[in-house]
Design a protein that fits this description.
Layout (H helix, E strand, L loop, with lengths): L3 E2 L9 E4 L2 E4 L2 E3 L1 E9 L4 H14 L3 E7 L14 E9 L12 E4 L2 H8 L7 E5 L5 H6 L16 E5 L1 H8 L7 H5 L2 H12 L5 H10 L4 H20 L7 E3 L9 E5 H16 L3 E5 L6 H8 L7 E4 L3 H13 L3 E6 L1 H17 L3 E7 L16 H6 L8 E4 L5 H16 L2 E7 H5 L1 E5 L19 E2 L5 E2 L42 H17 L18 E6 L3 H13 L5 E5 L1 E3 L5 H6 L3 E6 L4 H10 L4 E4 L8 H20 L1
Parallel strand pairs: 4-11, 5-8, 8-9, 9-10, 13-14, 13-15, 15-16, 16-18, 17-18, 22-23, 22-25, 25-26
Antiparallel strand pairs: 1-2, 2-3, 5-7, 6-7, 12-19, 17-24, 20-21
Length: 647
């Protein structure tokens, strides 16, 4: 059908004529932030994930922030049970899921109340009116219906009976009332897909595959999705529909990926590059469990997984697997790290490879299991008995979890040491477009395990000396059990510096303590210098981050620079040891600000090591640092510094 531009039929510009009907021409936008919110059983995560997939397939850059309730099943319609999914999609490179949504899709009163404070004035609200009864309003402390008074007068409100329209659309399938009402999320997805010019074919194919064994549920969800899309096309509720173009990206093959999935793929790749079997010994814990789930599906790639009865058994099995010649790994979150520490000390003493992935969550104790935090840094660096140094790395984004996991495997194998990789709940569940790497371009990892005798004993006979070291890495000679003639002792008691026999000699212990520390320090040879982003070279303030603060720092710095101010940024992946040039970088700036989702743990480490003042910027809210707040505070800091210099 030919589209004909029509600006002279009383409808004004911005409409196209299709036959006898007038259809709104999509208005271009460069970016949109949408938040889907509802009960934990309303399918908000599925809805957001599907909208993300469609946006990614159109070439938008995307970043997401799923937000789950901690309760397994909070009472329906209550504030603790609200689940949300925020998506930022744009036609340019983005690094955060956005601070505040432009559009809030609320499926009940609780979802509206829980998220309304984040919506800026003038924002769009699409709300399902079906549950706005006196009883449901009373559950959340509202005495009056906000849809009927002036509460929402500052917003663009679209109050629609999404549940009623979805139920009507699926009536022919004979579903019960409850099952019929559950299709409201697909109706909402269809409506938003129309509103933002998303394709429909892939979502329909997804629903066909997901519910292939339940034809009635499959057909009902597809019908509701199509009905929502059709409602958008035929209603006059919305003044415009919108379109966000593709973002420029490097040529290559892309897919959507979460941090946990990227971590799983990185562990597999690291083991393959080392020619070792990957063994994961873990106990399920939020928000790290998805790594275990994914790796359990990868027997086709030689991955062995063991779901242990507790955290200690999980890490102990991984240590045993590494001793046996595999690459042992374990995954957990903060509470599990506390339990694993003694066994990590065993891996330090025996000097064998071990990768420990800590997907951090809010604490202490059980804390807020589904919320994000960065408060395990000091635990990772110092949280063991005795002098027990380990290498600590941190991923900066969902896609960077892949590279960081490969790096953790490389260091663990090369230096015969445990490596702790820090992720967090925000990275674990958030999704980004990932340019699938060329695996051939990733450097091989050479285990260099001993296969023959490497020295002589006290009487001059050929012998295997398990603690004889590589002069560059200080990694000890490691032999896989069963290698003929290379039998040796292993265990948690202090070792003789050469033979590996049990030793209580004071001088030997001092030597071994210093050697283990020197080995971790030697990893700095494999760490690239920290790179500073200082476009003008005139910045007096450096913003230094680690982990998932990369997104807010980068976005806030862009805004500060657009406002005509100079600011430098840098980001650390390697937290122990730190890059060799970091001291010189810190000394080059008058003010160093470290944003963290803790009470200043990296700032404390930097001050102790480099003996200079560090300004800590702490936010511990269970949410990513707000880039808008950070921008405002950086502007104030820079202006104060400038005014002080002028005086």
């Amino acid at each position: 059908m030919c589209l004909q531009c029509d600006a002279g039929h009383g409808r004004g510009p911005g409409f196209w004529k299709v036959g006898k009907n007038f259809v709104a021409q999509p208005q271009p936008l460069d970016r949109v932030v949408i938040r889907f919110a509802g009960d934990s059983g309303d399918g908000m995560q599925l809805t957001g994930d599907r909208f993300t997939a469609e946006s990614a397939s159109l070439g938008n850059d995307v970043a997401t922030l799923p937000n789950f309730p901690a309760e397994i099943r909070a009472p329906q319609g209550t504030l603790p049970g609200v689940s949300s999914f925020q998506l930022h999609f744009a036609d340019f490179d983005i690094v955060t899921p956005g601070d505040r949504p432009d559009v809030l899709v609320a499926m009940n009163p609780a979802a509206l109340k829980a998220n309304l404070h984040d919506l800026p004035k003038g924002g769009v609200i699409i709300v399902d009116t079906a549950d706005f009864t006196k009883r449901n309003l009373a559950k959340i402390g509202w005495l009056h219906n906000p849809l009927e008074d002036s509460t929402l007068s500052s917003y663009k409100l679209h109050a629609l009976d999404l549940t009623g329209m979805a139920s009507e659309a699926v009536k022919e399938f004979g579903l019960g009332r409850k099952d019929a009402s559950r299709t409201k999320n697909m109706f909402a997805l269809g409506l938003l897909s129309w509103l933002y010019s998303r394709e429909t074919e892939q979502t329909i194919k997804f629903l066909e595959d997901k519910f292939a064994r339940k034809p009635d549920i499959r057909d009902a969800n597809i019908a509701a999705f199509r009905a929502g899309h059709a409602f958008g096309e035929t209603t006059e509720v919305f003044e415009h529909r919108y379109e966000v173009g593709a973002a420029p990206m490097k040529p290559g093959r892309y897919r959507q990926i979460t941090g946990n999935l990227a971590t799983a793929y990185g562990l597999i790749t690291g083991a393959k590059k080392a020619g070792l079997e990957l063994f994961l010994g873990s106990y399920p814990i939020t928000p790290a469990s998805d790594i275990l789930h994914e790796l359990s599906r990868r027997k086709d790639l030689g991955v062995m997984t063991f779901q242990a009865e507790d955290e200690i058994a999980g890490v102990a099995s991984a240590v045993g697997a590494s001793f046996a010649g595999a690459l042992g790994a374990t995954t957990t979150s903060g509470p599990g790290m506390a339990l694993k520490m003694e066994t990590i000390g065993l891996a330090i003493m025996t000097e064998i490879p071990l990768v420990v992935v800590n997907v951090q969550r809010a604490g202490p104790s059980t804390g807020m299991p589904t919320k994000t935090e960065q408060a395990d840094l000091l635990q990772a660096v110092n949280g063991r008995n005795g002098e027990a140094p380990v290498v600590v790395l941190a991923a900066r984004s969902a896609t960077d979890c892949f590279d960081t996991a490969v790096e953790a495997c490389r260091i663990a194998v090369k230096y015969r040491t445990p490596v702790i990789m820090l992720s967090d709940g925000y990275l674990a569940n958030g999704a980004e477009p990932w340019r699938i790497p060329d695996l051939q371009a990733i450097e091989p990892i050479v285990p260099g395990y001993a296969t023959e005798l490497n020295g002589t004993d006290k009487v001059g006979e050929p012998a295997f000396l398990p603690y004889q070291r590589d002069p560059e890495t200080l990694a000890r000679a490691m032999a896989v059990p069963g290698t003929p003639g290379l039998e040796h002792r292993i265990g948690g008691i202090e070792k003789d510096a050469i033979t590996g026999a049990i030793s209580y000699d004071p001088d030997n212990h001092d030597k071994m303590v210093r050697t283990r520390q020197a080995k971790v320090d030697a990893v700095v040879a494999d760490i690239p210098d920290v790179v500073v982003d200082d476009p003008t070279g005139r910045a007096r303030v450096l913003v230094l981050g680690w982990g998932s603060t990369y997104g807010p720092i980068t976005a806030a710095a862009r805004r500060v620079r657009l406002g005509g101010r100079d600011v430098a940024t840098a980001h650390l992946r390697h937290l122990n040891p730190m890059p060799a040039n970091l001291g010189d970088v810190l000394a080059a700036y008058e003010r160093v600000i470290v944003p963290e989702m803790n009470l200043g743990q990296l700032a404390q480490l930097l001050q102790a090591r480099y003996l200079r003042e560090i300004t800590s910027y702490s936010r511990v809210r269970g949410l990513p640092i707000s880039l808008s707040e950070l921008e405002t505070d950086l502007v104030a800091e820079i202006d104060t510094l400038t005014e002080g210099a002028a005086k």
